[in-house]
Amino acid sequence: MQVHTDHEHTHGEGCGHTAVRHDGHTDYLHDGHLHHQKEDGTIEEHVLPVTDANPAEHNAHDAEHPETHEHGPGCGHEPVPHGDHTDYLVDGHLHHPHEGHCDDHGPVEVVG
Fold it and tell me: What domain of life does the UniProt record list for this protein's source (predicted)?
């Protein structure tokens, strides 16, 4: 796990970053990373684990966006580290671009 000791931004309620809950705590989406703010000021880089609720396998679904929308840098959806890849947060779900469509990698609890 990567740790930042000199992170200039303090994550918390109202910090401007999307807060998500996993593994019993809150992390913050920040520039494609999932930051966990420790009480001592350090930031741990977290990754949403691959689980039954958040699988990584192919499972095409009816997306909540236009069929022509392609997820990637600058697409308008926040990138979320998930397992060994990057998904995109769309209406509380992880979307993963795959061969011209989106796979649904499960729900994420957005808390702020």
Answer: Bacteria
